[in-house]
Design a protein that fits this description.
Layout: E1 4-12, H1 16-27, E2 32-35, E3 47-48, E4 55-56, H2 69-76, E5 82-83, E6 96-99, H3 108-130, H4 138-149, H5 153-171, E7 193-194, H6 201-206, E8 212-213, E9 218-224, E10 227-232, E11 236-244, H7 248-252, E12 257-259, H8 264-272, E13 274-276, E14 278-284, E15 296-299, E16 309-312, H9 314-317, E17 321-327, H10 328-334, H11 339-354, E18 363-366, E19 379-381, H12 388-393, E20 402-404, H13 417-432
Parallel strand pairs: 1-2, 1-11, 2-8, 6-15, 9-12, 11-20
Antiparallel strand pairs: 3-4, 5-7, 9-10, 10-11, 13-19, 14-17, 14-18, 15-16, 16-17
Helix pairs in contact: 1-13, 3-4, 4-5
Length: 449
């Protein structure tokens, strides 16, 4: 049965971007419905509480508190935060136990030399990237920068591996797939924080009072002079505007049929931008076997493949727990493996460092964002042939009625929750045709306790 319901605006997707846009439009007096295919709000912000504590399978960090709109919103909502400033892939900045190619712990002097090497190479890399075209990769730019150092092979290889892992973690892609300019906007200002109470408290709080329909998979969006029609498997909705916030991977797969077809100005960026895969592996242990005074463990050299970095997230769980990542090709590969095989692989790498001190974990969590049909990837990146302009170009209104939002549409800070939030704010303002304060998101809300 086809039941049409008329609204002012339809929002497709109840992730941070969609919920932000819907809440602002609702605050402006619009009649808004949010259609979400999952059985929960939050999208790629997903907190698993089945173990009795929070495991953030999706977004985990606020990347830089300074000048970040999330900082004030999280405070207004009363969300507990914990400082953890290695959420972006950094050479140093916080205590990291670095192990060299021979599996020996770097002392303070060696660690300082290593981080200075990355600083030196980064300066050369920035100059090289500035002269690079959009059809050149981060790998090519990195090789030019390393060649300019004149370092011996082993010294250069350590930084080369760091760049490879940087793109795997920051972009969810191989260094050869990322554009030379792909990390131009990758700047973190201020401390980073994580959430002992779970990151999804943010979208869940912002969704309160909104008309959110779960289990509604959108299959088609049709534009006409009268506005838009949005079809799901069982219902159709009509409105003056629609804001589509599904992940870039879903758009690239053509899961939603747009009629008329999207113009090249929007379809081109969707095709050019990349959708990376970045998966998490959490391991919970009965007892801690790693040093007390470190944020992270990092293995350099050949032993750092495929697992190279482990983050101590025990402060969130209240139990001894390490988090490691699989990005790019390796991230896609582990999705085809059984949990036991993945866990065994991680333990094998840890035992190269700590030997028999590494016990079997008492619990584990493994994400598979690339094979999730409602995400088809973790977050967007600037692929070779694309540019940061493509992020914002993708969000240009189509016929004045169709709008896109989500982290992939925010060129200043793609692949972040605050980028998604800002994109939702922009989409709401475009629908309203005038500026609208982001402060309306939390107006009248009581902080959580």
């Amino acid at each position: 049965m086809d039941r049409r319901m008329m609204m002012d605006t339809i929002v497709v997707g109840a992730g941070t971007a969609g919920i932000t846009a819907a809440r602002l439009l609702h605050a402006a007096g619009q009649q808004v419905v949010v259609l979400e295919a999952r059985d929960r709000v939050g999208g790629r912000t997903w907190t698993d509480r089945t173990a009795g504590f929070c495991v953030d399978r999706g977004a985990s960090w606020i990347h830089g508190l300074t000048g970040n709109p999330l900082t004030g919103i999280v405070a207004a909502l009363g969300m507990e935060t914990r400082e953890f400033t290695v959420g972006s892939f950094q050479a140093g900045g916080r205590p990291i136990a670095d192990y060299d190619e021979s599996l020996r712990l770097l002392d303070d002097d060696a660690t300082r030399e290593w981080t200075l090497d990355v600083d030196t190479a980064d300066e050369l890399l920035q100059a090289t990237v500035a002269k690079s075209g959009h059809d050149e990769s981060y790998a090519i730019a990195a090789e030019r920068a390393l060649a300019a150092t004149g370092w011996e092979p082993e010294r250069a290889e350590r930084v080369r591996a760091f760049y490879r892992h940087r793109t795997e973690e920051q972009c969810g892609a191989e260094v050869e797939q990322v554009a030379a300019h792909g990390l131009d906007e990758d700047a973190i200002e201020g401390d980073e924080v994580i959430f002992p109470g779970g990151y999804d408290a943010l979208p869940r709080a912002l969704a309160e009072g909104l008309d959110v329909r779960l289990g509604m998979t959108v299959t088609a969006v049709t534009r006409s002079p009268a506005g838009v029609r949005v079809d799901t498997e069982n219902e159709s909705f009509e409105a003056a505007h629609v804001i589509v916030t599904v992940p870039l991977g879903v758009l690239k797969a053509g899961a939603i049929d747009f009629t008329p077809a999207l113009p090249d100005a929007v379809a081109g960026p969707i095709a050019r931008l990349g959708m990376g895969v970045f998966n998490k592996v959490f391991l919970q242990f009965e007892k801690q076997f790693w040093p007390d005074d470190v944020y992270a463990i990092r293995q350099h050299g050949p032993a750092g493949v495929p697992w190279h970095s482990w983050y101590d997230v025990s402060a969130v769980s209240g139990r001894p727990m390490l988090l490691t990542f699989a990005g790019g090709a390796w991230g896609r590969e582990i999705e085809q493996k059984a949990d036991d095989e993945v866990v065994s692989s991680v333990l094998s790498s840890l035992r190269k460092i700590y030997g028999d001190a590494v016990p079997e974990p008492v619990a584990h969590w493994i994400t598979r964002w690339g094979s999730d049909p409602l995400a088809l990837g973790s977050y967007s990146y600037v692929a070779v042939g694309a540019s940061h302009h493509d992020h914002d170009a993708m969000a240009e209104p189509v016929d004045g009625v169709l709008h896109f939002a989500g982290e992939a549409t925010w060129g200043r800070d793609p692949a972040t929750v605050h980028g998604a939030l800002c994109s939702g704010h922009r989409a709401a303002e475009r629908v309203l045709g005038s500026p609208f304060s982001l402060a309306e998101l939390t107006r009248g809300m009581n902080p959580s306790t």
